[in-house]
Structures are given as C-alpha cells and as structure tokens.
Amino acid sequence: MDSRTLLDFMSVAEKLKCTVRHSWTSSGRRESVAEHVYRLCVFAWLVQAEFPEMDSTKVMEMCLFHDLGEAVTGDIPCFEKQEKDSREEEDAVHRVAEMLPDGERRRLVSLLAELKEGVSGEAKLVHALDKMEALIQHNEAPIRTWLPLEYELQLTYGQKEAGAFPYTRQLRQTVEQDSADKMALEGASECQEQKEAFYVSRDKGKLDLKRIVELMRQSYWAKTRSEEMIRKAMEGSVCYGVYDRDGYMVGYARIITDFATTFYLMDVIIDEVYRGKGLGTLLMDRIMDDVGSLHGVLHTEDAGAFYEKYGFVRDRRRQEVLMEKERK
Fold first, then answer.
1. N or C terminus: fewer CB in 10 A for the chain?
2. Who contacts 63 (Cβ-Cβ below 8 Å, separation ≥6)?
3. One GO CC term of this entry (predicted)?
4. How far apart are CA 131 and CA 78, in angstroms?
C-alpha cells in the first residue's frame, strides 16, 4: 500500500476518535466510537479461549471495523436508528473501502458483508459482544446519564444475540444482574417517582380503541392485525390500561382467564415514547396481583428475562405435549 493511501485511510479512521456515542464513561464524559471499538477488541481477545473453533483473527477484524461507517455518518443510538440510517452507514463503508487497494478492499467488504449477514459463528459472536460492551459501559457510567428508556433496555437489549452461545448467554445474565443491582442501589427512587405519575386500570370504559391500535402497530407480533380483530380481542379479554394523570393511555395488556386455574398473558406493550420509566413493571405488578397465583402462559421472543422475574420459565420438556392449531 502506498504511503498516501495509507495516510488517507488513517485520516478517516481518526474521525472515530472525534465521533461521540450516546454512552458515557465512568468519569462522566461522552465516549467516542474509537473507545468503544478499542474495548470491543479487548473484549473479543479476552473471550477467545472460550471459542476455540472460531477464527480469532476474523473476529478481531470484524470488531475493529464494525463501526467504520460512523466516521462518515456519526453515531445514532440503537433506539433511534432507522433502516435508512443503516443503509447510509453501509454506503459510507463502501465509499471508504474504495480508498484501499483491491486486496484490502475486497477483504474489508467481505468481512463487513459477513458481519451484516450474521450467519457465521464469528459474526454472531461479534454482534453479541458489541451489544454487551455497550451495556457494560452503561453499568460503569453514572446512572444520571441514563435515559428513562434505558432502565428497561439494560435488561432486554442484546438478549437474542447473547443467546447464540452458552458462554455469552451466561455472561449476559451477569451483566443484567449488574444493571439490576445498579438500578436498585442508585435509581430506585428516580424510577418510583416516574411510576407514580402513572396508574393501571381494568376499567374497560377507559380503554381507547384507537390508542390500542396505535400501540399494536408498534409491536412485532400484532402490527398487521386489523382494527376489527383488535376490537374483538379486547372485548373477549380482561384488559389493563396504563394511563398518565390526564388519562392518556400509554400502555396495554390483556389476559384470557377463568380466574381459577390458568391465565394466558397477551399483548403486553408500553408506548415507545414512554419506555424506560418502569411502566412495564407497574403493569405486570398489577396483573400479577390479580392472577399471579394461577398457572400462567405467555409467548415472547425477546423479553424472557423480564418475565422470569415474575416466575415464568422456559420448559423445553413441555414442547413434547404442546399442541397448537393455526388461526384460519
């Protein structure tokens, strides 16, 4: 590689030192993307003995370049990033890669394509570590730097990615416990103040069908349901609404139950704008006050850790007796 190409590429990489992330350091200042990349590489180096089957060089290279596009686009927090932002970052990476000679360019593009596809073991590991490093950084930062929505994100973010391997799954549980301990120690009073501004009601007269439809559109499981289907489901269930002091509906859940043996928990959701205020806990606490002594059933793809706090467990053995009929 000629000296001018090398220095030009180094100049682009330097921008990662100047680009700040949403995360804060333990000393109370904003973290740069370069600092996140550095510690992600340290993270990958520390766990390499746990993954002897992995190509450790490829893992390190993916860590090193996974946020390269942010040298051009800047950093966008996960809870704000849209599909168009991801496309712009990908386009930026390709433009930067064009600076390199053919060999290095092909290597870089191939690495990042594999990482985006997320199928290989190396790619899955990097995704798990990347998300976990951000969680660890938040645990190390003063809790006053957390946004309200991050109280729940610390317990749910990256669960799917960490579940790809037994080691990262166990490590994610330890990080989650650190988050819970930090919130209990430093953030409990703040969370309580936020929750006290809201209340939960089973009064069907207070339910707002239009708001429930809007909430369902934010979910991954019910965003395509028709308004009529949502209305019928509401009418045939015991429903819970979460409201602010002015009566504005910000959350919803429903159960199907005989109030004697079993309840089926469904459609638990808090408006995206109001997440991180402890309202999910407020809602579940109320539901469990009503039916917590009964046998409970639910389905979830990404919130298992949250429901485990209420006694729900995944029992693989039950798959042997579980039967389902698809809806027509």
1. C
2. 37, 40, 41, 43, 44, 126, 129, 130
3. cytoplasm
4. 10
Please, what's the b/e burial string for 274-296 (b: 16 or more CB within 10 A of its CB; e: otherwise)?
Answer: bbbbbbbbbbbebbbeebeebeb
Tokens for 194? 């936020």
Position 201: which residue type?
A: S
| Residues in contact with 60: Cβ distance below 8 Å, sequence separation at least 6, in sequence order | 41, 44, 45
Q: What is the pTM of this model?
A: 0.60
Q: Are 189 and 248 in the same domain?
A: no
CATH code, domain with 233: 3.40.630.30
Specify whether 19 is located in the same domain as 125: yes
Where is the domain boundary, 164, 193, 222? 193
Q: Which residue has the tokens 């950093």?
A: 75
Pair (226, 149) in one structural domain: no
Residues 175 and 240 in one domain: no
Q: In this structure, is residue 273 part of a structural domain?
A: yes
Which helix (H) or strand (E) segment holds residue 63: the answer is helix 56-65
C-alpha dist (Å) from residue 55 to 166, 240, 266: 18, 50, 42
* CB atoms closer than 10 angstroms to residue 313: 8
Encode pLDDT of 272-317 as tens digits: 888 877 889 899 999 999 999 999 999 888 788 888 889 888 776 6
* pLDDT score, position 67: 94
Domain final residue pick, 193, 222, 243: 193
d(CA 328, CA 323): 16
Asked if 305 and 156 touch (Cβ cutoff 8 Å), the reply is yes
Q: What is the span of the domain harbouring residue 185? A: 3-193
Provide the domain count of the chain.
2
